[in-house]
Amino acid sequence: MSAVPILKRILAYGGILAIAIAVVGSVIGLIVAGGVGLVSALIGTIMAVVFLGITAASIVVATKVAKGDLLSVAFFGIVMGAWLLKFVVFIVLIVLLKDQPWIQTQVLFFTVVVAVVGTLVVDVVVIARSRLPYVSDISLPSEAPVAPDRPD
Fold first, then answer.
1. Rounded CA gap, 115 and 45, in Å?
2. Class of residue 51 by CB neighbours under 10 A (exposed 0-12, middle 13-18, buried 19+)
3. Worst-scoring range by mean pLDDT, 41-50, 53-62, 70-79, 138-147?
4. Longest dimension (CA), the chain
5. Quick one: which of 90, 96, 101, 111 has its CA closest to 26?
6. Cβ contact 75:66 at 8 Å
7. Is the dihedral of CA 93, 94, 98, 104 positive or negative?
8. In this structure, are residues 138 and 72 in contact, taking their beta carbons and an 8 Å threshold?
9. pLDDT (tens digit, 9 = 90+) per residue, 14-67?
10. SS in 3 state form for 16-30?
11. Does pTM surpass 0.90?
12. Would you tell me how many other CB atoms lie within 10 Å of the CB of residue 93?
């Protein structure tokens, strides 16, 4: 069994969450800071969606490269490399955006925080409800072939 269906479900729910955050964040940003708040909320939502996509894509690519062996060095290397890439891109974006006149930093901050917490909740809920087995290639004693009874 593959983790790809679970990742697709995470991306679908993440997309729904992103739309909700974009709408609510934009309305709150518009009320609090006008057009600048609206733009800030949308940028925060886009950042969260891109980072969620990078995570899912890295796991799919790592699974293919490692040929399904989730304990291989290649799998961990690709996933950790993607995590480091997200971290560096996040820091660069924050440094570039913090002093821009068309960004309201508090709206951007709260939008990103809500999006990150929301995507973590989506991850937990989807994975907890998934039916992915923990082990494979195992037969239970109840599945073993039964020997015919012999008269003694």
1. 7
2. buried
3. 138-147
4. 92
5. 111
6. yes
7. positive
8. no
9. 889 999 999 999 999 999 999 999 999 999 999 988 888 888 888 888 888 888
10. HHHHHHHHHHHHHHH
11. no
12. 15
